[in-house]
Amino acid sequence: MPAPSGLFVPRQNDAIGPVAEGERIQVIDVLRGFALFGVLLINMRNFDVLDQVWTGLDRLALWPVLILGDSKFWTLFSFLFGLGFALQMQRAERRGAHFLSLYARRLLILLLFGVLHSVLLYSGDILYDYAIVGFVLLVFRNRSDRTIVILALLCWLIPMGRYAVKVRQNEIQRSDAQAARLAAQRRTEDRREYERGEQVLTRGSFADAAAYRARRFVPRRMGLENCSFQLGGVFPLFLLGLLVGRHRIFQNIGEYLPFIRKTFWWALAFGLAATTISVTGNWPDATLPYDTESPLWRGLLWYVGTPALSYSYASILILLAQKEHWQARLAPLAAVGRMALSNYLLQSLVFSTIFQHYGFGMFGKIGPSLDVALTSLIYGLQLLVSVWWLRHFRFGPAEWLWKTLTYGCAQPMRVAARA
Known about the structure:
single chain, 419 residues
């Protein structure tokens, strides 16, 4: 008798099981593992005091973090999520599975992970956003290539348009006394809210921090700013990943290597120049170019330079992965990528323990130079642990739970003994 159907109970031909070892595309795991390093680096930086002016070695360390790191890695990670969506859809179709219900369960569970992660550990969680935008992607999964490209370009313009409006509002505020007063009131309210959060981080217990994050969850996640990020930041990258996956580029990567080689240097040069100019336009203060007090041209340079630099990162790793002697060197990155969810959650657990009061209470006390050192240390340990773990187990612990809930049955965890 087939199992009862429903959203949370897999149909019989849904239970296709997780991706087998031989079906994995290792370079995708490598890219995912590499992106996790940058995610950790930037999340670590978010626990520095926001209005701190760093000097000396800290200032020296902050510039490459902003230029090379900020926004580059969630961009790459978002593209990989859309790519994974396309690959799973193809796999489900090959095996005759009901992809829509299967993936909807997967997204609902990811949504739950995101809410819990955002409340218990880190308010900057991105899993919630990925789950929400994932449901939007389901609607467009069968649209034509032309529709997807046009939609991606239109959505990509959203953050630039919103930024331009903010800059214009600032210009009006400087010339209009009433608008200036209202803006000052809003800044005061925002500053008070930030100080309340800072007080929780520096003095509160775990329960205090969780209660504060829970109280801020709805206004933070459902506000216009976050919706703009979801539709204008994450969604176009999901669409690009869907398009690349649909055309099976990673399954036939050899055919595209000449194009990747040609465009790598252009992407690197343009992305590096654009982001460097946009960030250093306010030397010596190291603030992000999409700060609304910045000139419009700086923010626009940033928004076009960031994806170019992300592409250059991905392309050089793809090129290296084609060389036999590099495959073994990149294998630890692939191990981290295979356990991306577990490693992402573990990173939040570690740095929340380091910075929040119920842990070591280092919020605002560690500068950018130590951020880089701590990131390297934590990520190095994750490389070692991930390689060791996957020698004995098929999935990371969070991946096992995600797959078990998705497929409605406990997945075998241990690696089968080999002769």
